[in-house]
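WARN  no MSA supplied for this record, continuing single-sequence
INFO  ligand: NDP
INFO  echoing inputs
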Amino acid sequence: MSYVHDTIVQLQKSSPAQTEFYQAAEEVLDSLRPLLELNPRYHQHKIIERIVEPERQILFRVCWVDDRGEVQVNKGYRIQFNSALGPYKGGLRFHRSVNASVIKFLGFEQIFKNALTGLPIGGGKGGSNFDPKGKSDAEIMRFCQAFMTELHRHIGPTTDVPAGDIGVGGREIGYLYGQYKRLTTRHEGVLTGKGLDWGGSLGRKEATGYGAVYFAQNMLKSLGEDIDGKTCLVSGAGNVAIYTIEKLYQLGGLPITCSDSQGAVYHPQGINLDTLKLIKETRRSSLREYVEHHPEATYVDVESYPEDGHAVWRYKAHLAFPSATQNELTEADALALLGNGVFCISEGSNMASTASAVDQILQAGIAYGPGKAANAGGVATSQLEMAQNSSMQQWTIEKVDKKLMSIMHDIHHRCASTAEEFDQPHNLVLGANIAGFRKVADAMIDQGVY
Ligand code: NDP
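INFO  complex generated
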């Protein structure tokens, strides 16, 4: 049996019930075959066995008091997966679906994503099964304070620097940072995504969405195409989706869909960005409201989605930008996209596509940017925030955006040239996994057994 099969079987025994993590590990390990065949040293140094095992996993209880005075108990996680390239870096996710498997798959992906940026950052991830939906501002604050009361022991500006992810935006980072400062008396770059007046970087909020569009731009360029005049499908209605839509408009694209956990909006004249921001950023409410502002748009409730997938992927378009959550693009969705003329997919969300969807997309040979490459603009700009914090500077938006564009160009180049080196020029999944792995594995070998 192959090392991929053996490793997954071993993980199933040692870390049971972690489906999402096995999926992420299998995809990476499978891509590495051609590299490992040529380089026995990775097996000799037991890099595969070492890289799938986190350096440290912190699991803690988070107790807080809700507005009715009742005590609530949640689980908190921080996984410090790999520090070969630098301090652990990766977001915090607050969502009811969070468990050890989800945090582990996200942390594993983060190792290779961070390596691809070319910046000195290791991989980590964290979060909680806390559900922010319907909670008051005061409840969010008390939860964040309770979460940081434990987490602060394990993080620091040169050890582990968390950021946002699903359910963790500027408001949550503010409460977390305030508590860190209160506990440590230190004002330092221990979190990224901070407010602009207290250490945040211009352009960080926009970076993941803008970066996913820049990545698509690079893929399209190699096909002699560009974004201008293209119809685009976007899923999600949070940070990544909103700034993907914003950048698509700036580059002449026409985004016609978005979605949240309750339903999807189809607006053939183009999603109205002001309405979307009003509903999601200001009111924090449901996309259902969108059609009250734009009766010509259609709202599809999640109950009416096709059984085998997601409504957003069933419309005619040229480009697709999954920007909600993992496994949001199924095999049936992939076939629908291909049948409807989509020829470029750039993933803003992590592990957006199921394994069988990825197989269909790769087989079709269209341009496909996997999340660990296409959404790396967020973490890259977080690292730029760390650089500004440690030098006590704040750069202009022009400087940050220029750096983001150049980082996304370089990530695309790294993936594409590695894919070419291994004779699979269109396979950026293989390119991303090998390029990211090789950098981390070489650093691990340099640093001896640990
Ligand atoms: P947000 O919380 O801002 O938005 C997430 C959006 O996706 C919301 O519209 C939410 O709906 C929807 N969503 C979440 N879970 C589900 C689900 N199970 N089914 C359907 N819709 C769902 O998160 P982000 O925009 O920050 O993150 C989106 C994706 O991008 C995630 O995969 C994240 O890991 C990835 N990412 C984020 C980065 C960042 O910088 N923020 C960096 C790199 C990757 P609702 O509004 O109803 O909750």
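The mean pLDDT is 97.
INFO  checksum written, moving to next record
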